[in-house]
Amino acid sequence: MTVYYVNSVTGSDSNNGTGESSAFATLAAVEALRLNPGDSVLLAAGSVFNEQFDLKYSGSVSAPITIGSYGIGEAPVIRSSNDGIHGSKASNIVIENIKIADTGANAIYAGNVSNWTVRNVEVSNTGLAGKPGSVSFQSSQNITIENSSLTGVHSDGIWMDKVKGVTLVNNTVTNSLGSAADAIQLNDSSNILVKDNHLEQTETNSAKGVLVLIRAQNALVEGNTLVGGGFGLSAQAGTNIAIHDNDISGYGGYSWSYGIGLGDQGNAINYDISGNYLHGGVYGVLISAIGNPAYIRENIVIHDNVFDDLSSSALKVDKPASGSFYDNIIDSAVSTLTMPATIAAQNTFSIGESKTIEQAQAELDSAAGSATGDTQVSSPAPVAAVPAATQKIVAVHDSLKITEDTGSAFHGNLLENDKASNGTILLRRFGDSAVDKYGLTLTGKYGVIHVERDGDYSYTVDAAKLAGLSGKVSESFLYKISDGASHIDADSLSVSINVDTFHSSQSSHMLS
């Protein structure tokens, strides 16, 4: 297992490359070597390489070949008139802690490979020669992209075709460019996890959307934030598709724009769409198709979602489909359903009871008021909880009681008293927003609260909002948790403030 060093500033290709003081100068010098399982190629911080890096050899599952960086300073950059990194039939590869920018074609392209991991890689302004600038994988297996950022990519940010085993976790993909560009597009792939990513198409010339799954098999899309685009999530065809706990907003531009759409480009069978917050768009969930293709749309279950600020209905079904829509929360200004009479007459898609946001809000306010004895309660739009008897995950009510002005924020953790049968508890939403990797800050009625993904929170009282008040006041923030296995629950954090003792402690601080 050999470590090779490459430094574009101080290196020389006449060196042996095996030490920092004897580093190569170019990637071409590394390509001339036969890399073995467990070898590492480390690029010096601050280096710039104006060449394509071809990976020709494979590592092993237990000893992959690693492309990384060393030293202190800016991450090394690969620039190229063609691909940044190119691999064909080279498997068991790790690429980490580098930048790829200003390439003529793909940032990374690999075909007929297996077991690649791309982590903590920054990609920008790729695809300048009219070719796709994506991070691309084709006809491959077990591809992971995590903790990476892609911006200004010409064509789809991440593009995969015929990949078995896709894991996309905690990435940021913004403003993919081109008339047909999406943040992510996965074609004819299977065993897919798309989780905790921030995907945004708000400042782009693309006429398309954010996340596309075409003919996917066994996919879980969970905990992502999708913003902008002509549509949010297009899962047009597939089998066993779970779409849970995503925040999808800001999509529009077309009369048909949707937050989640399916039913076109193939059969759609066994979809569970739950716990999502769809807002600031046209339709919520759209089950449709162009023309009248003989596709099957079967067992589409849509429940426990929140639909808010939509210009059309929460659900539109205008092609034959079977499934159900129930226990959702819908803004009173948003119609529940668009369904032609011919489709309704087939009686295969049931529409159950839903609540308005106002009704759900009133229930939460009532529950919070009963628990604290207060009447002044403020909280964001809630999501309906599953009855406790059927739950494999249980969110337990949290409370913060404030009796004095300490001069600093008040801290706690939302998750420490919650329980899940599999031991995994994930904070998905706080208030009416998804909690992403940066946490979430909300302004409440009496203070400002910041929440991290691990449940830690800090609440800072806004003393100006307590001026002229007396007695006790309170506000409540709903939060939602998941066990990562499609089970969800919701409860709330109640903040109670004794205004009189708070003012008294302020006076004492001023006197002291």
From TrEMBL:
Residues 84-203 form the Right handed beta helix domain. Transmembrane segments: none annotated. InterPro entries: Beta_helix, PbH1, Pectin_lyas_fold, Pectin_lyase_fold/virulence. It holds the Pfam family Beta_helix. It comes from the Bacteria. SUPFAM superfamilies: Pectin lyase-like. This is Right-handed parallel beta-helix repeat-containing protein. The lineage of its organism: Bacteria, Pseudomonadati, Pseudomonadota, Alphaproteobacteria, Hyphomicrobiales.
